[in-house]
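User: Structure with adenosine-5'-triphosphate, tokens only please.
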Amino acid sequence: MALIICNPVGGDSTAKQFVEAHVLPLLKANDVPIARIVETEHAGHAGTAAFEFVDSTVSGPLDIIVASGDGTIHDIVTTIALAPSYKNRSPATPAQVNLVLVPCGTANALYSSLFLPKPEDDPVQYKLQGIHAFIKQAKRVPLTLAITDIIAPPRSGGSAPVREKTTVSVVVTSIALHASILHDSEVLRTEIPSIERFKVAARQNITRWYSGCAKLFPSSSTGVVEIWNPFDKEFVPHAESEEDNPHVDIDGPFAYFLSTVNVDRLEPAFQIAPLVTAEPRTGALLDIVVVRPYRDASLSGLEAEEERQVFAEKSGEVLRAAYQSGNHINLRYDPTGKVVSEGEGELVVEYFRCGGWEWIPDTEDEKAHLLCNDGLINTIPKGGKAKTMAAAPSGESGFIVYV
Ligand SMILES: Nc1ncnc2c1ncn2[C@@H]1O[C@H](COP(=O)(O)OP(=O)(O)OP(=O)(O)O)[C@@H](O)[C@H]1O
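Assistant:
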């Protein structure tokens, strides 16, 4: 018996109509029994409804049909994954949660990464591919989780840092420009329900840089932090990551810092982490895309305001190239600082693959404290930090998507 969760206010607010007009008839025609339909009434409702379903199901598969965007999927995964009673389930009860996706959000990153959109797709049939996969019970993909701890500074001199919140992402964990875009675009949601609002928010934030320190942690599979070498088209160990000292510290300022799991794109055409699909690998791995302005030697000697204006053009080129099949990872600086796709110059984008990362924002930099987890915004407390680690799916538990 499947549970249906539908977010009536996600995307262009058509999830409820889509479920009634297309999903329910298709399930009925294929004799798929439905336990309950939940229309979410507030943020977080999807998580509690999904957890109640999982907690009360003692036998049979845990199938949850989710008509929403990535934020609602995030609510469901975080609530279930972090619930103590889920982790301590009796071995007799099912522990694997099967997600059936119906893309009714704004960006639908997970869906568009798992079901690549094609120009000839019929819009309704495209959105029903997850339901068809569920009915056929064909292929299932396990999700890697990115588990983030938001850590506050010690309350008094001698005490330990305090873990303020833990959250579980299945798509994106970011700081810097992407987090600012998601933060500011929320204000535009009613006015611009489509993905256009992300472009408007990008323009509002494109000149901003973010101060702080990032540390990258090795993956358990390779023991090192890897970086993409576009010249040889392969991941190689980062020059500073050695087996006995594998962490890599990268200093700011940062223009862009975003990590993904399970997805190569954040919107149907915005392929920000193209190597997730081009160079796939299983395991507890994150792909991280970083832009640091001071890799551009041509900024040398400019005044602070001027260097931000000059670099904003280059950040814009990176984002535009991500819409061109992820070509941003091939961009370099020519000897004059111009951004080009050919040659031997310094890379504009650093593309890492590793086990996790930590971010300590500069206390003076307000917006560097914004953290985006699957589109939801958290704020790192002043003096605190955020740490994200990848967790690979196990054979018996975790989250699986029908594809
Ligand atoms: N009735 C509701 N009122 C307000 N917020 C809700 C309601 N139901 C769900 N939400 C919240 O809305 C947020 C966004 O929803 P969702 O991800 O489904 O759509 P989206 O943001 O438009 O799509 P995407 O995440 O793909 O860009 C979720 O975090 C969810 O908790």
